[in-house]
Amino acid sequence: MADLSITVDGIKFPNPFVIGSGPPGSNASTINRAFDQGWGGVVCKTVALECEKVHNVAPRYARLKMEAEGLKKNQAIYGFQNIELISDRSFDDWMDDFKKVKDKYPDRVLIASIMEEPRKEAWQEITERCQEAGADAFELNLSCPHGLPERRMGMAMGQHPDVVKEVCGWVMEVAKVPVWAKMTPNVTDITVPAQAAYDGGVDGISAINTILSVMGVDLDTLRPMPTVEGYTTPGGYSCKAVRPIALRMVMELAQAFPGKSISGIGGIETGNDAAQFILMGCNTVQVCTGVMLHGYKMVKPMIEELSAFMDKHGFKSIEDFRGHALEYFTTHADLAERQRIAKVKKTLERDSDWDGENFVKQSDALAANTTS
Fold this sequence. Notes:
Blueprint: E1 6-8, E2 11-13, E3 17-19, H1 28-37, E4 41-43, E5 61-65, E6 77-82, H2 91-104, E7 109-114, H3 120-132, E8 137-141, H4 155-158, H5 161-174, E9 179-182, H6 191-199, E10 204-207, E11 211-213, E12 216-218, E13 223-225, E14 235-238, H7 243-256, E15 261-265, H8 271-279, E16 284-287, H9 289-294, H10 299-313, H11 332-349, H12 359-367
Parallel strand pairs: 3-4, 3-16, 4-7, 7-8, 8-9, 9-10, 10-15, 15-16
Antiparallel strand pairs: 1-2, 5-6, 6-14, 11-14, 12-13
Helix pairs in contact: 1-2, 3-5, 5-6, 8-10, 11-12
């Protein structure tokens, strides 16, 4: 069987499958459950220093489902929206949980997702305390698309490259472990805030966070969903439907920053999904909505499917095929030219007088009579 372990920014993961920040990593019990099932790492639900400022509502989820027979309940869901905020648990309780998790699983990777207001002292305090409690790495939540904009947190911070660079710099002044910045897709060019994060000194990027969305309107009540006391707010869109967008943005990041680590996120539910993200340049892949729909045990068939993919192609390690698909992206103009040349070549190969050494001369002569 292929070796699924991978070392990222000096940290060894037993496999590339990581629980993404959210409900599946909301306390020590859920994190331990993930490790029990074989996940290579866990990014905890985002924590902040002052939990009393966080007030979650209910309902806070909405779903898009396929109209198909024979599908199990959660298999039919292809779009998922949430308006859930970061953790409302005490920061001190979180520090206790970090210690408990690392005591039980010292060889597994615990990543602290942190978010704070744009204050240097707050970011540095949360960084220092989390790593003292045992965090192996950090993921800076600069990208949550809903909630707390009044405190200039999440996407309200991550859409401004100057702020991204400043915050990342504050963290890197005190961080003793690797730091990833989690990027928002709600920008014109995701490489711009990513460049700012690297200018601030971070080691890698996580992408993408959820896409700001309105799930829909209930045609009986005429209220947008999810409806809370008759009202709602735009939320974060995830699940299978966002995977093509996530793959495109990961491709852009991998091409813009060769050699930098990427943790890919967005609609990953199978080992073959993971393989696509790794082919685009990702070192690890994160799953959050998938775990909410299918449970922690989903990692076992994901591992088996990724292993089968690697065996099929003769890949012995993740690095053997990471980024392999990137070289096949080009411009539309180049695609048209490649197709023109292919048609010319096909025509010439049918011609018994074709001379391979003079292919360029012959193809140019024929080009005027060959459409693209």
